[in-house]
């Protein structure tokens, strides 16, 4: 296979090209009905289902009752990071490899970095919109009390930024796993679903078997969900966590490690054109 050489562009132009692609990527994303439902709206749908189905159930101790909406909100926010980042990116890029889009990009002056800026920028934009929608629905539809302290929102900010960046980079790294664009959904979605079920998104993490907790603790979603619970659950609820603490240091460390792993895998494996093309 011949190698296509991308002309070197000044850093400023590379950045401008990447930023200009963010708007294009966002528009393209919202024009795809299946992507919008299974990545953008899915956490909202699940929050609504759980909040209504378990509206009569108390998820906290007797002296500190917690509604289903308040209990599931942190998990849905964490799941949104995974869906907007990993699932969306992996399926989208795998599809662009399969339909020849990346091959066509190889014949243009578009730098790989500009392409990534556009993709990751789209994840940030849609991730922020999704988080805002979840918070508004939780607050005004299900009357969930949101944090009022600056420290809590600061924690939310860095957990969100680190989480969505890590998820996006891991999505790029996983985009090479499907053998074709048509198989991307069948390969990626089961991975994402399993991670959600074992990471404390749909089930109380502390009630899972210890061996399953150990497996989930290897992956970043468990830690992102834990970081979100530290922000949105009332004071004292850290007692239901493994070890009885929020362990925000662990949240930052494990998520950052996966970010580095994703960057390394992406650097080694990503190409405009597949090796077997």
Task: Please give a handful of descriptors for the protein shown.
10 helices; 277 residues; 0% strand; elongated; mainly alpha
Could you walk me through the main structural features you see in this protein, from its secondary elements to its overall organization?
The structure is a single chain. The protein is mostly helical and 277 residues long. It has one domain. Helices cover 68% and strands 0% of the residues. It has 10 helices and no strands. The chain has helices at residues 11-30, 33-53, 68-98, 101-105, 112-140, 150-174, 184-198, 210-216, 220-232, 248-269. The model is unreliable at 1-7 (pLDDT under 50).
What's a concise summary of this model?
This protein has 277 residues and is mainly alpha-helical.
End-to-end distance: 8 Å
Portion of residues in beta strands equals under 5%
> Tally the helices: what do you get?
10
Shape: elongated
Whole-number count of domains: 1
Poorly predicted sequence stretches spanning 5 or more consecutive residues: 1-7
Helix-strand pattern, N to C? Answer: HHHHHHHHHH
| Average of pLDDT | 89
Amount of helix: 55-70%
Task: Classify the secondary structure makeup into a structural class.
Answer: mainly alpha
| Tally of DSSP β-strands | 0
Main pleated-sheet profile: none
Task: Provide the gyration radius in Å.
Answer: 20 Å
């Amino acid at each position: 296979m011949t190698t296509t050489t991308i002309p070197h562009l000044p850093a400023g132009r590379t950045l401008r090209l990447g930023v200009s692609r963010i708007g294009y990527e966002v528009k393209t994303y919202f024009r795809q009905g299946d992507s919008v439902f299974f990545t953008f709206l899915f956490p909202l749908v699940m929050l609504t289902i759980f909040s209504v189905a378990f509206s009569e159930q108390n998820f906290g101790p007797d002296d500190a009752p917690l509604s289903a909406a308040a209990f599931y909100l942190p998990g849905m926010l964490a799941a949104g990071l995974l869906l907007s980042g990993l699932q969306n990116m992996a399926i989208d890029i795998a599809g662009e490899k399969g339909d020849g889009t990346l091959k066509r990009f190889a014949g243009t002056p578009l730098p790989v970095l500009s392409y990534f800026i556009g993709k990751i920028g789209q994840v940030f934009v849609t991730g922020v919109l999704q988080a805002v929608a979840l918070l508004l629905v939780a607050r005004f539809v299900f009357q969930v009390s949101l944090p009022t302290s600056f420290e809590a929102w600061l924690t939310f900010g860095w957990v969100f930024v680190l989480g969505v960046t890590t998820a996006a980079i891991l999505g790029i790294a996983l985009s090479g796993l499907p053998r074709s664009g048509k198989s991307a959904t069948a390969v990626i979605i089961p991975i994402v679903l399993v991670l959600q079920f074992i990471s404390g998104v749909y089930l109380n993490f502390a009630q899972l078997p210890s061996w399953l907790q150990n497996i989930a603790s290897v992956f970043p979603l468990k830690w992102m969900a834990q970081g979100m619970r530290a922000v949105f659950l009332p004071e004292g609820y850290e007692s239901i966590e493994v070890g009885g603490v929020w362990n925000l240091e662990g949240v930052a460390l494990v998520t950052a490690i996966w970010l580095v792993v994703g960057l390394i895998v992406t650097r080694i494996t990503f190409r405009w054109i597949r090796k077997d093309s």
